[in-house]
Amino acid sequence: MNEQITGALFKQMILHGAAAITAQKQAINDLNVFPVPDGDTGTNMSMTIGAAVTELNKTTPASIDQAASITASALLRGARGNSGVILSLLFRGLSKSLKGQKSAGAQVFAAAMQEGVSSAYKAVMKPAEGTVLTVSRLAAKRAVETAAQESSLEAVLEAAIQEGQEALAQTIDMNPVLKKAGVVDAGGKGYLLILEGMLAALRGEPLPEVNSEAEKPKADFDVFSAEEITFAFDTVFIVRKSAPDISLEPLRTYLNSIGDSLVIGEDDEAFKVHVHTNIPGNALTEAQKYGTLELAKIENMRTQYEDVAAGKKAQSVDDLEMEEAAAPPAPAAPEKKYGFLSVCAGDGLAAVFQDLGADGVVSGGQTMNPSTESILAGVEQIPAETVFILPNNGNIIMAAQQCAGLTEKNVVVIPTKTVPQGITAMMNVDFDAPDPQTITSAMTDSIGTVVTAQITYAARDSDFDGFAIKEGDYLALEEGKLFGTDGSLETLLEKLAANASERSASFISLYFGADVSEEDANAAGAVFERLCPEAEVAVLSGGQPVYYYIISME
Description:
Helices cover 46% and strands 18% of the residues. The chain is an alpha/beta fold.
């Protein structure tokens, strides 16, 4: 029987805990409906603690202090999703409590568990009961009470797990979302699996095997809808602090004003943010006032929910990362001075950029923001000394900028926020320019000459720029701002054409999307020809999702 947890034993406890949740990660995913029904809690928690396993396997910790510190640091940087960030906070507080300890007995370890809970509650802006916070809090409280009565570490963890199981069973009644779905909290269940794995290591049991799982309870995802997800983008990023003692409270207040499910974990060198928001670019921009952005991940939870509800695997940035890691392409050796990489969605738009001289196209756009790794892979495949990147979306600019310094090529990001801006920029390239700055200036200056309009639809009732929008309405945006809404697509096209006429536009291009027929697109073009008789009007197949039309006016 172990009476003290040493560094080596703590390492083994983490390895067991990771194996325990990995073995049942899909069962945890199937419970995941809160705060958003996107079915990824098991994956996020297993990958988060998996980051600690990777780091611990590189060393033999001499003390529990060292082992806990390595674990906490790895969890902070490897945390994925709301549940992963909270898990990292639980171990961050535990690590702080164990600082300076060579080993830990029952009372010391129980106190460290409670400190972990305190750290998690402090970091979560709006703690919700009936979640992993509740389960961990009551489990830690029971651990402390048990440790005051006896010195057995096994007895302490057994008592904590028993209390946690009782609390987990109650989460279905504590949280209305869980009650609606008929399941217990996924994060709480995942945390208890990790504790059970740690207890198994204390008992000297073998490492759990990852086998196919038996049938487990699943949430009824059909009782939800994508429209119930208020904030669409699950946004996670790491920032290296500009100063160790910088206060993050102003950032916390700002992020809470633009989203929910906010969790911020930090150490002396960096902080990690998890937030659900509709404007992830704003969150990243604001955070950079506190240091240097290192990593970022943005996923659309509405599309993830739709995949899960349809019985498919939810698309994740992690899938892209695994594909890239499986077959990393060798960088192309420079064969010319300049190369161009565009980001866009739709075969038609990709063909336009290639016709204008783009060497490569990365698939992505609205709701499909590619990772820095995806953009970097595109850069590396272009055989040029200098590669110009056209993000063509405001939320992609920052990811593109991270490529600089990650490659031996000279990377220049042209801050195009729309596809028409990118096309105009490409049309102003002098491929024989004497230096990159000449091209940069010409492309950047041209961006201001084009006005972009886009037509999409409202997926739910909402408020946009102070206007009440009804589900199913068509929305016209001009330069990112709401131009108008209507139940008729033809009416919006008439208004946009009239606006183009008032602007005295000389060149108008309509790129029609995947859901628009060529016949309807030509009819839309005829509207612009009628109301803008002096303009040159072109109708082109863009093939883009999300937007029925992307309209360029110059």
